[in-house]
Amino acid sequence: MRAGLTEGSPNRHPGQGTACRRFFFSNAMLELIWLENEIEARSEQTRRTGLFERLSGAPPGAISDAGRMASPFGVILRPALECEVICPWPSWSYCPPTMPGLELEIASTDPGEPMWCWMKSGRAPAQWPPERRQPLEHPAGFREVTGVRIAGPELTPDSVTGTMARTGLIGLETAVEHRLELQFDRGSRGTTIDFRPALPLIVSA
After folding, report:
1. C-alpha closest to that of 191 among 24, 4, 50
2. How far is CA 22 from CA 31, 51, 56, 61, in A?
3. How many whole angstroms separate alpha carbon 5 and alpha carbon 23?
4. Does residue 177 carry a pLDDT above 70?
């Protein structure tokens, strides 16, 4: 990849109607997801996730109740090692039978904010067992995600995204368009890569 990132193995999500490309770092994974099967994405199994609305970009399905374009982002959190496993927000369980072993707690959010998920069995890529290990070395030298900023239309104060911002987990910015900014290694290199307009993503390192 021209940005100096080493791609890991791609993945397909049977029954969910999506597929992805993946990039792994010591403490996080960047997953680029797209729709592959509209029927599966709008099925009874998957409908409640809102993935079709988030990924299709086709109005009116992509418009939230508040009149905002649906956020194309999702954030999956995991518990810290040796910490009590408690989902930090009210949620519903997503355990699709077509993907045995996948268990997510998904927050009931307005589509205008990111899709927040909790994976109690999640681990940092650097802690994965050898048989699941993915490439963590990148020509650009990126090693660890040290900052996340999410931009988009204004959200209500009690939104999950707003709560996560108040705890310091993410930065939050009000903007006309949705945008994700990832900082690597505390920005020690002083470099910035802007993937727009292909992706609403800016990377700094």
Report:
1. 4
2. 5, 18, 20, 26
3. 7
4. yes
User: Rounded to whole angstroms, how far apart are CA atoms 176 and 120?
Assistant: 33
* Contact call for residues 106 and 116 (beta carbons, < 8 A): yes
The Cα–Cα gap between 147 and 204 comes to 9
CA distance 179 to 196: 9
pLDDT at site 113: 94
Domain ranges in the chain are: 11-128+141-204
- Whole-angstrom Cα distance, residue 153 to residue 201? 16
User: Reduced to 3 states, what is the DSSP secondary structure of residue 105?
Assistant: strand
46-102: per-residue pLDDT in tens? 999 999 999 986 443 333 444 458 999 999 999 987 776 789 999 999 999 999 999
